[in-house]
UniProtKB/TrEMBL annotation, chain A:
One of its GO terms (cellular component) is plasma membrane. Residues 122-330 form the ABC transmembrane type-1 domain. Its main location: membrane. Keywords: Cell membrane, Membrane, Transmembrane, Transmembrane helix, Transport. It holds the Pfam family BPD_transp_1. One of its GO terms (biological process) is transmembrane transport. This is Putative peptide ABC transporter permease protein. Signal peptide: none annotated. It is found in: Cell membrane. It comes from Streptomyces clavuligerus. It is a multi-pass membrane protein. The keyword Cell membrane applies. The chain crosses the membrane at residues 41-59, 126-149, 161-182, 257-287, 307-329.
Length: 338, 520
């Protein structure tokens, strides 16, 4: 009877040397992956410690920041004790960190469960950031390729100049301009995002302006990266050979230029993830988008270290994942080409 | 309400939008026709959903009617679902009936008996009893800020006398006690556990349909004791920034932008389809001069600073004209406000001579601490500093972040700005911020004659004698307190054209939306 350990009949047995090499490579890959993950996790922990320390340095604390005029000193002291603020900051940090692996994000200064506070806003922010990332990817690759197909031509120059101009614009300037033109003047789109009964944006068209405001600067940045990577790749010998062989421009682009430029493009898009999530905080305020931006801004006002750290932790985890994915794509792309 | 720093950062963008809008709309600055004015125009119509934008922070959302409501959106929702015992009034009295229809003091003004409205029901159909009210008031009194919310009333001295009478006994005679029961005395069912607060039935004009992260839908309470409610529903939308709220109104996504502020009002001035609802005497933003110690302890110095300020210019520039000139008396919306006291105007020569007399050191630079907690506050400090310089007083404005301001400056600083939203009672301020005993004496000002006048004002039943005492309270305050009240800001709501019957009272009067209706 064929069990899981007995090779099925007909399966060609690998040569021992080749099998060992595969194993070695898999092991090496796993070690590399583990190393990267450990380094990123350590970095995140250091970052979270820095967040706790930074909040500690701000004037006032969670008890004073969330108090009401008229609360007396004794009540304040009682609340400080309730919030654990009478304990040194490193103990509070250690406490909070030990809860993390179990998914316990702690309690906010206002006594709410932090996991509960983030359960709706965070997916909303991920939706906003994810759509903006997708739009950035599609548009910047398309624009970069369009320009690269006609190097030095008017399209190339126009795309490059616009991209440079746009990447320098802060998200909130883009946001205010979009609201003005596409909503208040023309009435085409909703000016702000209103949340429905389930906490998500009440209609899909409310997503358009925030996604655009977030993506436009990143499109500018990535278009330039794509264009530059394609230009670099164009000087490679195999590309020149392909051109001399008389392949169509489109085929040269899709089969020779893009695969070579892939690692650079991936790195560019991956770095945009951080910028997109950072920009989301600002864009959410302009559009009243129900995401973590508002939670974070409020948490800073409240000196709410666990809540700020939780936002940093979940955002950091997402960015880490995307960077890891990008690393894998690059490793695969360069490995495939080697 | 508090505004976070990001909102202040974005104010630049807001200004830009306002300027562009002003430049692009070709229409002339015409008033909305009288039919569209709040409270007037047409026959009230039943039906419709009013979409209201209210400011708040998603992280500060609270559902506890007796908790700290930092968010206007939360307060609005709570105030529509739960009735208070009394409510802000207008006209000749600043206290109006709500869940209590009548109140009667004892001869010594210490015992007050409140009679509950006949037929008042909770949303689940059970009748409201005095026990429910007593339980709720005691719960309120036992919160951390309870002592300042119900000053002079011990929890044990809140009792029921029969099913429909609530008795409050004050530690001292208090003619203004019903005033204390206006703002946060939300009534819940007796023994409502903390875990059930979010869905606890109230007695208010609307009941909760759903609530999610500060946003809510409220539907009409058909059996409200206070009369017929016309709107089918009210949807409350939480806004982090006043600018986003104004944009939502201009784009037609909401019908009412509650407490939208002067910047938004300027933006809306050229839009014929937007009503600007001005609620006078909404917010006082006085400058506090420390009377207990320091460079401003000499009353002549404080007088000199009061004479430095160009009040008209302050109102025009800081409040965009949406406000009135103040006369250094807090509580300008009080029906008993002393309009006859001499109006202080700018007099630099007299200011200079007073400073000289008091031997005030004009070589030194004095720091004026301020925050950006409410719009216009930091601007008022800056403009005051410019004006004071003309009298030879060097003032440097220091902006503090809200938390550090309350930790380090408030109640302690020599010179700082503050703000108060309950601006319709002279005695509110006298008891809270100026009496020798008061825990929030912002200027550390103590005056025996003032205390005596205050005690007479709250301890005298005879109306004429009371009025005399009230005037005396204001006269002494006008002459020597630690406050420089240059003006009072109007509360500004923006509304779409079809909205009618909006409240025009200052402060928390703005949440009384039960009479609103839609003409469409």
């Amino acid at each position: 009877m064929a069990g899981p350990l007995t090779p099925a009949a007909g399966t060609p047995l690998r040569e021992p040397a080749a099998a060992a090499a595969t194993l070695r490579r898999a092991l090496g890959g796993a070690l590399w992956l583990g190393g990267v993950l450990a380094r990123r996790a350590l970095l995140l922990a250091v970052l979270l410690a820095a967040v706790f320390a930074a909040v500690e340095l701000l004037p006032g604390d969670a008890a004073t920041a969330t108090s009401e005029r008229g609360e007396n000193a004794a009540d304040m002291a009682a609340r400080r004790e309730l919030l654990g603020l009478d304990r040194p900051v490193h103990i509070r940090f250690a406490d909070w960190m030990t809860g993390l692996p179990t998914g316990d994000l702690g309690t906010s200064a206002r006594g709410e469960s932090i996991a509960g506070l983030l359960s709706r806003p965070f997916p909303n922010t991920l939706l906003l950031g994810g759509l903006a990332l997708l739009l950035t990817l599609v548009v910047s690759v398309a624009l970069g390729c369009w320009a690269a197909l006609r190097p030095g031509g008017p399209v190339d120059r126009a795309v490059s100049a616009t991209a440079t101009g746009v990447l320098a614009l802060p998200e909130f300037v883009v946001g205010v301009a979009l609201v003005l033109v596409l909503s208040l003047w023309t009435g085409w789109l909703p000016a702000v995002t209103l949340a429905g009964a389930d906490g998500t944006p009440a209609s899909w068209d409310m997503l358009i302006l925030p996604v655009l405001a977030l993506a436009v600067p990143q499109i500018g940045w990535n278009t330039r990266i794509v264009r530059a990577a394609l230009a670099d790749e164009a000087t490679a010998p195999h590309v020149e050979t392909a051109v001399i062989d008389g392949l169509t421009r489109r085929r040269v682009l899709t089969h020779h230029l893009l695969p070579g430029a892939l690692p650079t493009i991936t790195a560019g898009i991956a770095t945009s993830t951080g910028m997109l999530l950072g920009g989301a905080v600002v864009v959410e305020t302009v559009f009243n988008y129900p995401g973590i931006g508002s939670v974070l801004a409020g948490a800073v006002t409240d000196r709410d270290s666990p809540l700020i750290a939780a936002v940093v932790a979940v955002t950091g985890a997402v960015i880490t994942l995307v960077l890891l994915l990008a690393d894998l794509i690059r490793a695969w792309a360069s490995g495939a080409r080697a | 309400m508090k505004v976070n720093r990001r909102q202040v950062l974005l104010a630049g963008g807001a200004m830009g939008t306002a300027a562009l809008l002003a430049a692009c709309s070709g229409g002339t600055n015409s008033d909305v026709d009288s039919a569209a004015r709040p409270g007037g125009g047409g026959r009230p119509r039943k039906g419709g959903t009013l979409r209201v934008g209210a400011l708040g922070r998603a992280g500060a959302v609270t559902r506890d009617p007796h908790g700290t409501q930092a968010n206007e959106s939360d307060y609005l929702i709570i105030a529509l679902v739960h009735d208070t015992l009394t409510a802000p009034g207008g006209g000749t009295s600043n206290t109006a009936p709500r869940l209590a229809t009548r109140w009667e003091p004892s001869a010594d003004l210490r015992t007050w008996r409140f009679t509950l409205a006949e037929g008042a029901l909770f949303h689940d159909g059970t009748p409201v009893t005095a026990d429910d009210v007593v339980w709720s008031l005691r719960r309120l009194r036992n919160t951390p800020a309870g002592a300042s919310r119900l000053p002079g009333i011990k929890a044990a001295n809140i009792t029921a006398d029969g099913p429909r009478t609530v008795v409050l006994v004050s530690d001292y005679p208090n003619a203004e006690l019903p005033l204390l029961t206006r703002l946060s005395t939300f009534v819940l069912k007796k023994d409502t556990p903390d875990s059930a607060l979010a869905k606890a039935p109230g007695t208010g004009p609307f009941r909760l349909d759903w609530f999610r992260s500060g946003n809510a839908r409220l539907v009409r309470n058909e059996k409200w004791h206070g009369g017929e409610v016309l709107l089918d529903a009210i949807e409350v939308k939480l806004f982090e920034s006043p600018q986003a709220m104004a944009n939502a109104l201009l784009a037609g996504q909401i019908d009412l932008a509650s407490n939208a502020g002067a910047v938004a009002a300027r933006t809306a001035e050229r839009r014929k389809d937007i009503q600007i609802v001005r609620r006078p005497d909404d917010m006082a933003m006085p400058i506090v001069m420390r009377a207990a110690s320091g460079p401003f302890a000499d009353p002549r110095v404080r007088e000199a600073l009061r004479l430095c300020v160009d009040r008209e210019a302050m109102v025009r520039q800081v409040l965009s004209g949406y406000g009135t000139v103040g006369n250094d008396i807090m509580g300008t919306g009080d029906p008993a406000y002393a309009k006859d006291l001499p109006r202080r105007t700018r007099d630099l020569a007299r200011a200079k001579s007073l400073l000289k007399e008091a031997d005030f050191d004009t070589a030194k630079t004095y720091r004026l601490m301020t925050t950006e907690d409410v719009p216009g506050l930091a601007e008022s400090a800056t403009l005051f500093a410019t004006q004071a310089r003309e009298a030879g007083v060097k003032v440097e404005v220091v902006k503090q972040e809200s938390a550090s301001f309350y930790a380090d400056t408030w109640l302690k600083g020599d010179l700082y700005t503050t703000y108060w939203g309950t601006n319709d009672s002279v005695l509110f301020f006298a008891s809270k911020t100026m009496g020798s005993e008061s825990s929030q004496n912002e200027a550390g000002w103590k005056d025996a004659a003032f205390d005596a006048a205050y005690r007479r004002a709250i301890g005298t039943k005879d109306a004429a004698a009371r009025a005399k005492a009230l005037r005396e309270v204001q006269r002494i305050q006008h002459e020597s307190s630690g406050y420089l009240l240059w003006g009072v800001a109007e509360g500004i709501d923006l509304a779409a054209a079809p909205v009618r019957g909006l409240p025009e009272l200052p402060g928390y009067g703005r949440v009384q939306l039960e009479r609103a209706w839609l003409a469409r």
